[in-house]
Write a structure and sequence with these properties.
By secondary structure, the chain is α/β, with parallel strands linked by helices. Helices cover 43% and strands 13% of the residues. The protein has 21 helices and 14 strands. The radius of gyration is 23 Å and the shape is globular.
Length: 506
C-alpha cells in the first residue's frame, strides 16, 4: 500500500532537529515519524509530506527530498507553501489550498502514482486532506492530536477575549478545518476513548461527526520506540549522556545531596505542562525535599540556574521556576539542564532509573501522554496527571501502572511522589508494572497495525455521504482573499451556543 502523511507544519528531518524546543516541534512529530517508520518496516511505501522552508535560520528543512538512514520505504517530501521563510502553524492556513495542494498534486503526477490512502494529522493536515480528497477521491484518515475547541476552553475563551484569541491563534480557521476533516474522513483516529467522546463531542463540533458512531471512529493508542527507550538498550550516546548528567548534578546539587534520587520532569516549557505545580509540590513538602532532588530537563537551555532572579531568561515558565527557587531556597536541591534529542533523553531516563528516581508529568491536561510511557519503558516509575489520556493508559479499572495525581493540588502531587520515593518496594512494583504495560500494549508496530485495521475495516471506501451530510468547504480555504476569511461571528457561532452567538453584536 502507498500511504502519504499530510503534515504541513511537520518539520521532519533525519536529525529530529529542534524537537520539543518550540510549540511546532512537539509530540506530534514523534508520533508521525514513528508511525511512518513502523508502516515502512511492514513493507508499505510511505511519504511524509511537509512544507519546504528556505530560511538561513532553519537549514534542515530546505531540501525537497530526505530520508531516514536505514529506512528505504520512508521518504520526507518537502513542498513549498507560501513564503519561503519559517511560519508558525497558525499562519499556514491561507497557503494550504492555494499553494501546498497544487504542489502535492504535481508531485504525485511526476511520481506517476497517487497514494492509496492519505493520513492527515492536526487540523492543517486535515484541511489539506479534505481539499486533496475532494479533487482526487483519495480517502483519508484524520488524527487531530488536539482540537482547537479544547485549547479555547483552556484559554478561558469568552466574548471579551475572543478577538485577541482569533488574532493570535486563528481559531476560526482551525475549528472550520477540524470540522471539515472529521466530517469527511474515512475514519477518525483517537488515542483514547476519552478523546473520542469528550473532545469530538464538544459543542463546537456538533453536526460535523457523531462520536457515538463506531463506523467513524477507531481508538488506536500511540507507541513507544523501544529500540530507543527500552530499559535494556545501551546506545552509543549512553555513557556520554550519563557523564553529562553527572556533571550537571555536580554543578547544581549540593554535595551532601548528590546520592539522593531525583524527581525528573521532561516536557516542553509550556504553561499547560504545569511545571509550577511540580515546583510548588516540591518546595512545600519538607519530607519530599529531604529524600529527593528535583531535575527539570529542557530541550535547549543548559544552565538557567546561573541566572539570578531569571535575568536574561526568555521563557516565562522558566522565569517563574527560578523565582520560586529563590523564594523557597531550592538552589542546591534542584538542577535544570538540556538533553538534545530522543536518544540522550532515553539514556538519561535509564541513568535516573538506576538511582531509583521517579518521572513526573503534572500537566493540567494531556490528550494522551506519551512521555510517561517512554520513561516507564526505560525503567522509571511515573507520577502523572489524572486529567486526560493517562487515566486510561496508566489505569485499567483493575490495576494502576503509575500514580495518578491531581495537577492542581500540590499536596496531592507531593503525596504521589512520596508514595514511590519513600518506599522502595512500591518503587519496584510500579517500575515493573509500568515497563510491562508499555511492552505489552504501547508499541509503534501495534499502533501501525491498529491504523491499517481501521482502514481495512472500511475498505473499499465509499462516499462520506453514507455516514452523514457533507459540510460545504468555506470559500476562504479555496480563495483566501482579504475580507474572505472567517469572522469573529463565524468563530462565535461555532464555539458558543449558536442561537446566543447569532444574537450578539461582536
Amino acid at each position: 500500500m502507498y500511504l502519504a502523511f499530510l503534515n504541513p507544519q511537520g518539520n521532519f528531518d533525519p536529525q529530529d532537529s529542534h524537537w520539543t524546543a518550540y510549540p511546532d516541534f512537539g509530540g506530534q512529530l514523534v508520533y508521525v515519524k514513528q508511525l511512518a517508520l513502523a508502516m515502512g518496516r511492514m513493507g508499505h511505501r510511505v511519504d511524509l509530506l511537509t512544507r519546504q522552508i528556505i530560511d538561513p535560520d532553519w537549514p534542515e528543512f530546505a531540501g525537497r527530498l530526505d530520508t531516514y538512514p536505514g529506512e528505504p520505504n520512508v521518504r520526507i517530501v518537502r513542498l513549498p507553501a507560501g513564503p519561503e521563510r519559517f511560519l508558525p502553524k497558525e499562519e499556514l492556513w491561507p497557503y494550504l489550498g492555494t499553494d501546498w495542494l497544487p504542489n502535492i498534486k504535481d508531485f504525485f503526477r511526476r511520481e506517476d502514482r497517487f497514494p492509496d490512502v492519505l493520513l492527515a494529522h492536526y487540523g492543517d493536515g486535515g484541511l489539506a486532506a479534505v481539499l486533496l480528497s475532494e479533487r482526487t477521491g483519495i480517502p483519508f484518515t484524520f488524527t487531530a492530536h488536539s482540537l482547537g475547541a479544547q485549547k479555547m476552553d483552556k484559554l478561558h475563551a469568552d466574548w471579551d477575549n475572543l478577538p485577541d484569541l482569533q488574532r493570535r491563534f486563528h481559531f476560526a480557521q482551525r475549528l472550520w478545518a477540524e470540522r471539515l476533516a472529521m466530517n469527511r474522513s474515512l475514519v477518525n483516529i483517537t488515542s483514547t476513548r476519552q478523546e473520542r467522546f469528550q473532545q469530538y463531542g464538544h459543542r463546537a463540533y456538533r453536526g460535523a461527526v457523531d462520536p457515538n458512531n463506531d463506523q467513524r471512529f477507531a481508538v488506536v493508542s500511540p507507541g513507544v520506540a523501544l529500540e530507543i527507550f527500552d530499559r535494556s538498550i545501551r546506545l552509543p550516546e549512553e555513557e556520554s549522556t550519563h557523564k553529562h548528567i553527572r556533571a550537571m548534578l555536580e554543578r547544581d546539587i549540593a554535595p551532601a545531596r548528590r546520592a539522593l534520587p531525583c524527581i525528573v520532569s521532561s516536557s516542553r516549557l509550556d504553561p499547560k505542562k504545569n511545571h509550577m505545580g511540580l515546583v510548588k509540590a516540591f518546595s512545600n513538602s519538607l519530607a519530599l525535599r529531604e529524600i529527593a532532588n528535583l531535575v527539570i530537563i529542557t530541550a535547549d537551555i543548559d544552565n538557567p540556574l546561573a541566572a539570578q532572579n531569571g535575568a536574561g531568561v526568555q521563557s516565562p515558565v522558566l522565569q517563574a521556576i527560578l523565582a520560586a527557587a529563590d523564594q523557597h531556597h531550592l538552589r542546591g536541591q534542584m538542577s535544570i539542564f538540556a538533553l538534545h534529542g530522543q536518544k540522550p533523553l532515553a539514556a538519561g531516563y535509564r541513568y535516573f532509573a538506576a538511582t531509583h528516581s521517579v518521572f513526573a508529568l503534572t500537566s493540567l491536561y494531556e490528550p494522551f501522554g506519551l512521555a510517561p510511557l517512554e520513561a516507564m519503558a526505560a525503567g522509571l516509575p511515573a507520577v502523572v496527571t489524572r486529567n486526560g489520556g493517562p487515566s486510561e493508559s496508566l489505569y485499567d479499572g483493575q490495576r494502576a501502572y503509575g500514580v495518578l495525581i491531581d495537577p492542581e493540588a500540590p499536596a496531592n502531587i507531593a503525596a504521589g511522589l512520596m508514595q514511590l520515593l519513600s518506599d522502595r518496594q512500591s518503587w519496584q512494583t510500579f517500575a515493573q508494572r509500568g515497563y510491562r504495560r508499555v511492552v505489552e500494549r504501547y508499541t509503534w508496530p501495534r499502533t501501525a497495525t491498529g491504523y491499517l485495521e481501521a482502514i481495512n475495516a472500511r475498505w473499499p471506501p465509499t462516499s462520506a455521504k453514507r455516514y452523514q451530510p457533507l459540510i460545504p468547504i468555506p470559500s476562504y480555504f479555496l480563495d483566501p482573499q482579504p475580507g474572505n476569511e472567517p469572522t469573529l461571528a463565524n468563530l462565535a457561532a461555532l464555539y458558543f451556543d449558536r442561537h446566543e452567538a447569532e444574537s450578539e453584536q461582536l
